[in-house]
Amino acid sequence: xxxxEKSLESAxxxxxxxxxxxxxxxxxxRLAQLELERRVGDALMRFRDGGGYLLGICNGxxxxxxxxxxxxxxxxxxTSGRFICRWVKLKRRVDDNxxxxxxxxxxxxxxxxxEGRFVAPEGAAEKYMDEGLAALVYEEDxxxxxxxxxxxxxxxxxxxxxxxxxxxxxxxxxHYDQDWSGDDGRxxxxxxxxxxxxxxxxEIAHEPG
Length: 209
Hints:
Oligomer: single chain
Structural class: alpha+beta
Distance between the termini: 34 Å
Radius of gyration: 17 Å
């Protein structure tokens, strides 16, 4: 089912989730994107401009640049030509993003994609790096992404898209190292969702009336 614009009025956060959207091949997010454009159109843009937050994970990330909600770019086949399912080390490159506050500069998340290589027009990726729009980068070349970009944000900070899966690392039991304890057993994904929750809760608490 697709959410219509009126039902967005009481929402503060929309998550475009990962998973296999029409199969993970030939631009997996393309058909889902067309469906979103047809049913929702620019409603998501108005949602963001009205103070809402958007998070795109994996295939959800693929959709956001095509809707004009993130800087221009595409997610295409990994350079290996293979589906990659592994844990990756990430570096946070922005200091005050609503989704990433509280996360350390370096952390881990799992990835699972065949089309996770970020590409952009010539010179654009370097611009995103310079302007703080490349929110997350891989510490090593995982899939051939330009400038090792793993996640993008928009200039408002209200939209974040990333290829890694935060929902797959909420607790220590999700980690590949059985001895990992981290932050009281809470994973990097938990911290990411807690960050945006705290941001929204703080805004609601300061609303008049």
